[in-house]
Amino acid sequence: MKALMFGWEFPPHILGGLGTASYGLVKGMWECGDMDITFVIPKPHGDEDTSFARIIGAGNTPVAWRDVNWEYVQNRYGYCMEPDLYFRLRDHIYADFNYLNTNDLGCIEFSGRYPDNLIEEINNYSIVAGVIARATEFDIIHSHDWLTYPAGIHAKQITGKPLVIHVHATDFDRSRGNVNPTVFAIERDGMLNADHIICVSNLTRQTVIEKYHIDPAKVSTVHNAVTPLSDEIKAIEMPRTTKDKVVTFLGRITMQKGPEYFVEAAARVLERTNNVRFVMAGSGDMMDQMIQLAAERGISDRFHFPGFQRGKQVYEMLKASDVYIMPSVSEPFGISPLEAMQVGVPSIISKQSGCAEILDNVIKTDYWDIDAMADAIYSITHNPALYEHLRIEGEAEVNEIKWKYAGQKVIDIYNNVLRHY
Q: Rounded to 5 degrees, what angle do the CA atoms 82, 85, 91 make?
């Protein structure tokens, strides 16, 4: 079976969980066999793993004709695409897009991030999708998250192939209910045009059904999983230079992730003990506010803000920790606790997270219950038996949560959609 997937991130260049989940799922589906996947991203860098998926960059796809030769394309884009692909795509330009801001090869350049003109980039991405869909053979379309729903809809309209969308999060999660009407409209349009909707948790599935008024019959849950650790990650050893226990929050410092509850719980813990340090790793619009809150609570000397972590740094941070905590207010899934459990770090997660549906060997609290959160932190850091139990059983549990299983569920959904389409 051949799938045309639209995504926004792909490792090693990721800005959040979307890229990690997309990579894991695609590789898991490939491991199931008989899958040919073309994965589109806005801006390829040339170092993406292409052993199990064909990567096409929207930013390398011509939408306006330019009279260039093979050598010129090779010099400009050879690091991330074969020139023959450029010319095949150029043969499928379907309208005059010279009015758009294109470069010397007739391509729209993308940031590959989440810029201020994000809606414009989403629209441009859907235009490029029209060229790619015309030039690619596939049986089904799969769009990851709201940014790529318009691209998926366009591909469906011009090819007549069925569309599956993957809801990794909704704007109700990102905004704590203060929904952006433009984003909501894009999300709902994607859901209405989709032949099937895959959600990363039952929590997200209920949001889709109740908030977007979607027929439950066309909405399924496929929980995320975790990628096995590489030998390089397994070999990381973090020397401990302090006798203090380390409790880590790692993620975007935004209201969705509940960072203020972490700071307040830390203050409660430090009223009872002084041998615990707290780390808030990441970046986001609430970072300065959290630094100020830690100062107001008088715990700045026990609080550290190392900034955004990527790749190997994430696992170095986790391996240096005694407890991992994810106090999210609304977390569609949340892969980070699984990554912590992989390296033997006991985890505390909010009951308002999708991964709480499949994890047993963690401590679960309501995001707003800072007393319960503080008790959990204190218990793990001061009760060696509890620490060892969560460390050993958590690692064993998470090693059985595999992307191949999730991939097979998605393939089964594809087959069902194609059977009834």
A: 150
d(CA 162, CA 388): 48
Which residues constitute the domain of residue 328? 231-398
Q: Give Cα 177 to chain centroid, integer Å.
A: 20
Model pLDDT for residues 324-336, shown as the tens digit of each residue: 999 999 999 999 9
Per cent of the chain over pLDDT 70 is: 100
Same domain, 31 and 150: yes
CA–CA gap between residue 186 and residue 189 (Å, rounded)? 5
Burial (Cβ within 10 Å: 0-12, 13-18, ≥19) of residue 84:
exposed
* Greatest distance between any 2 Cα atoms in the chain: 72
Length of the chain: 421
CB atoms within 10 A of CB 223: 18
pLDDT of residue 242: 73
| Element at 189 (helix H, strand E) | helix 181-193
**pTM: predicted TM-score of the whole model, two decimal places:** 0.93
390 and 257 inside one domain: yes
Q: Mind giving me the DSSP string for 91-151?
A: TT--S--TTS-B-TTSBB---SS--TTHHHHHHHHHHHHHHHHHH---SEEEEESGGGHHH
Q: pLDDT band at residue 17, thresholds of 50, 70 and 90?
A: confident
330 plus 407 within the same structural domain: no
Q: Which residues on neighbouring strands pair with residue 325, listed in sequence order?
A: 348
Whether residues 256 and 200 share a domain: the answer is: no
Residue 123 structure tokens: 């629209």
Between strands 140-144 and 54-57, the pairing is unpaired
DSSP states of 51-91: SSSEEEEGGGSBSS-----HHHHHHHHTTTS-HHHHHHHHT
pLDDT tens for 355-389 read 999 999 999 999 999 999 999 999 999 999 999 99
Q: Write the pLDDT tens digit of every residue in 185-217.
A: 999 999 999 999 999 999 999 999 999 999 999
Listed residue (80, 227, 56) closest to 155, CA to CA: 56
Per residue in 215-268, pLDDT (tens digit) is 999 999 999 999 999 999 999 988 876 789 999 999 999 999 999 999 999 999
The CATH number for 346's domain is 3.40.50.2000
Looking at the structure, do residues 242 and 295 belong to the same domain, yes or no? Answer: yes
Retrieve residue 162's tokens: 């069925």
